[in-house]
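Hello,

Our lab assistant flagged a job as stuck in the queue for most of the afternoon. It eventually completed. Since we weren't sure the result was trustworthy after the delay, we are filing this so someone can double-check. Below is the sequence as submitted and the structure that was eventually returned. Let us know if re-running is recommended.
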Amino acid sequence: MKATSGLAVIVFLGLVSCFNPPEYPSVPEIEFDQIRFEEVDGLANADTLDLSIRFKDGDGDIGLLPDTDSDDPKFAERYYFKINEPSKKYYLSNGGTSLAIANDASFIRYKTKRSNASYDTLPSYVDPYKCTNWEIVTKTVNNITSTVDTVYFQLNPYHYNIFVDFLMLKNDGSGDFEEYDFRKELCVTYDGRIPVLAKEAGQPAPLQGVIHYAIIGRGFKLTFGNTPIKLRVQIMDRALNKSNIITSEPFVLDDI
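-- returned structure --
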């Protein structure tokens, strides 16, 4: 199960003219445009934190195709490992399932940690590791769901191409902010995937524009209330070049 919650909706506006293309560096550059919060009445309804960032990129290689995970393992969501091949990464390609991995005794699973001294340093199965390292694989037969096994995985830091961290004002009077890690706290992430922005993905060309990223979730007001927060944002292109990191000014959800 992907440790992701909410829906990322991304829209691209603006394209550099092909007649007099400017010269931008091949590493993306970003800056904040605006942040808006849209609250929906009712606990069952999701709210939206709408983030807009301006960007420039010299070769326009920003964005991933929907089938990238199966075509290129460097963008897979997670990797699995075999006991006798601990340095080789396996991923769920077309036709592959975590159930097949759980049924294959050659892959590392929680019993490997308990029985093989070479793997006793793997993370324990306690929060937050069940969201970041251990996958409970189940199967359903005749409407009865049962656990097959618990297999080990590592999250791929290159699966997403827009990274959003939430920084929350500490309540110690210091005025400092610290990260509220949704993955560790709630087993979700608000990192996302920008689709391909260039009209022809294989043709390098400078791009500039605005990315609108709608972060949808039900826990923003419950988590932050009237506490000031900041957003820390970075994007990455297909060559794995990461942009500059930008951090917003402090804001309260009700004020934006």
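-- support follow-up --
The delay was a queue issue, not a problem with the job. The result is valid. The helical segments are 68-71, 98-102, 110-115, 129-132, 182-186, 220-224. The longest helix spans residues 110-115.
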